[in-house]
Design a protein that fits this description.
484 residues, 17 strands, 16 helices, 36% helix, four-stranded antiparallel beta sheet, alpha/beta, nine-stranded mixed beta sheet
């Protein structure tokens, strides 16, 4: 039950007292009493004065998210999770129709001191949420970070998004004159929160807190990553490695896309000391480790290669499953390169009324955003569509969508002619700094994963035929001379 003072306090914020009481909210005449429960048992209480804005907690209470039991409610499985900065904001979100809402009771960083960092002790409270998001049925679940719109709230957004995974997080812009969901409800009623939600639904998963419009010359230069050598002089003229960039490798079946990719990243790992995370469900991870060990040594494999694999062979792995596990590979094992080989082995789950082209475009944006935010090199191996006789692979030959030609930073084709392998760049976005379109040829040692410079066998054949024809002419002329 609540006193008249408690009811007046809630109604003054457009909060429904009956809804609040159904969630266990009470008051003692002077303070609002907010229970924190785990598995239905109260483990802590938080108190907020009905006059003023003073807060306190029960001494010795367990630190947990408010309303965290909702995370394990089977009826809410897979639905968007809203995380607010305070319990009153969480109540506002629930009243506006959000079903899966929790509140972080720890407070935001002081802007004077900057971010706490994603590994701060106070964020251990989110472990229950992290464990939930790693469950297969929650891989597609998005998280809305409904923190305050002030400087401190923005720092909290950065910390928690880094902790949970920026690829799955959204956050809010509030109407002018408001800084949180509580303000929206208090000033505009439930329609204020509904307006914020409508804007949110139009966005990609990760977006900036604010945009900027200014004179072009006033923008600060983005810090571009350093270009790293591939280890092959002829290839460096075509492309180099750069953190944050997305590379696509394509080619017809059995022309060596995967083998060439592994040879390139094995060279990069040895040259630059990088660690590589490999998702390749077509291959057995243990056999891959053995093959790599035979080629470059087991010590190198143990130090530089990390496998990403489903719990059981044949388990469906969709885009968000991959992003979640790639995120873990980067954070836990400090991978610099992540490989998705091949694209078509992902489970492609489209939204209602979403075409394959639209899905692929959205997926590539999510993958590119992940690479940029995590500062890693992302390599995607993708098959082309069925080619006509004599058709060469171009930018729009990759299966499922023209977006494969439009969105990646580098697109390269692998082609085998007899015992020679061509690597051809058909797109390099930053040609001023990173390379250019062109081709180069190698002889590929499959067992040792080594690429040795070679010549175009087609030109060699032309030269051979030309020399052979010249030899016949010489012989004919010489014979005629002797006959005379």
């Amino acid at each position: 039950m609540m006193t008249d003072a408690g009811i007046k306090f809630l109604e003054g914020r457009n909060l429904d007292p009956e809804m609040c009481m159904s969630l266990g909210i009470t008051d003692n005449g002077k303070e609002l009493v907010i229970p924190f429960k785990v598995n239905g048992k109260t483990v802590n209480e938080k108190y907020r004065t009905l006059r003023g804005k003073d807060w306190r907690q029960q001494k010795g209470g367990t630190q947990c998210l408010w309303n965290q039991d909702i995370l394990h409610d089977e009826s809410q499985q897979g639905k968007t999770i809203v995380v607010t900065e305070g319990e009153l904001d969480a109540l506002a979100a629930i009243q506006a129709g959000f079903g899966r809402v929790v509140a972080f009771p720890g407070g935001a960083p002081d802007p004077k001191n900057g971010r706490y960092g994603a590994d701060a002790e106070k964020y251990k409270i989110f472990d229950v949420l992290l464990q939930l998001l790693r469950q297969p049925e929650e891989h597609k679940t998005n998280v809305v970070l409904a923190f305050d719109g002030d400087a401190a709230g923005k720092l909290l957004v950065e910390d928690v998004a880094e902790l949970i995974g920026q690829y799955r997080c959204k956050h809010l812009n509030y109407p002018t004159g408001t800084k949180d969901l509580g303000d929206c409800l208090s000033k505009f009623g439930e329609r204020g929160i509904e307006a914020v939600d409508k804007t949110l639904r139009k966005r990609s998963v990760w977006c900036s807190m604010a945009g900027e419009v200014a004179l072009l010359t006033s923008f600060k230069k983005q810090v571009l990553g350093e270009a790293f050598s591939t280890g092959f002089g002829s290839l460096d003229r075509l492309f180099q490695w750069r953190a944050g960039d997305t590379y696509v490798v394509t080619g017809v079946p059995n022309d060596g896309k995967t083998t060439v990719t592994m040879a390139l990243i094995a060279k990069a790992a040895m040259m630059h000391g990088w660690r590589v995370g490999v998702f390749s469900p077509e291959q057995d991870m243990a056999l891959m480790a053995d093959d790599l060990a035979e080629a470059i040594g087991r010590d190198m494999v143990e130090r530089h290669f990390v496998g990403i694999a489903p719990a059981a062979y044949g388990d469906a792995c969709d885009l968000y499953w991959f992003l979640d596990h790639a995120d873990r590979a980067v954070r836990q094992y400090r991978c610099t390169i992540i490989i998705l080989d091949p694209w078509n082995e992902l489970e492609h789950t489209r939204r209602k009324d979403e075409s394959m082209t639209e899905y692929v475009g959205r997926a590539i944006i999510e993958l590119k955003r992940f690479a940029k935010h995590m500062g890693i090199i992302l390599i995607i191996v993708a098959h082309p569509h069925k080619l006509k006789a004599g058709e060469e692979i171009g930018l729009y030959s990759i299966s499922d969508s023209a977006n494969w030609g439009n969105k990646p930073d580098v697109v390269m084709v692998v082609k085998r002619v007899e015992n020679h392998t061509m690597i051809k760049t058909i797109k390099v976005r930053d040609q001023k700094r990173m390379g250019s379109r062109g081709e180069t040829w190698f002889s590929l040692d499959i067992n040792r994963l080594q690429l040795m410079p070679s010549s175009d066998p087609r030109e060699m054949e032309k030269k051979y035929r030309g020399n052979k024809g010249q030899a016949k002419k010489t012989k004919a002329a010489t014979g005629a001379l002797f006959e005379d």
